[in-house]
Amino acid sequence: MGKHPEPFKENEVITITNHEYFSKLARQITKYINEITDEGNVFRVDLDLRPDGPGGEIASSLASCETYYHLGEKFGERQAMIKARVSAEVKRWEDNFFP
Fold it and tell me: Among 28, 29, 66, 96, which is most buried by a count of CB atoms within 10 Å?
């Protein structure tokens, strides 16, 4: 007989890291976006295209993104991100992220 966690109790606080939270959130959003309904789907998200492919993290910290995109071998991907930042309209960190 396998063990399983007890059901959550009302008002029970569960602690997870930011990484765990954003990884779960990204997976859930991707699941909903990819879901095919009677009306079709929103669009297809290919998570294999993320940094480091299917073996990479689904949610990365800004520090790991900076390291990834500042490496010389990732020049084409860095250029694509620089172009995409205009559509993201995130002005607070973009100048430091892509100087």
Answer: 66
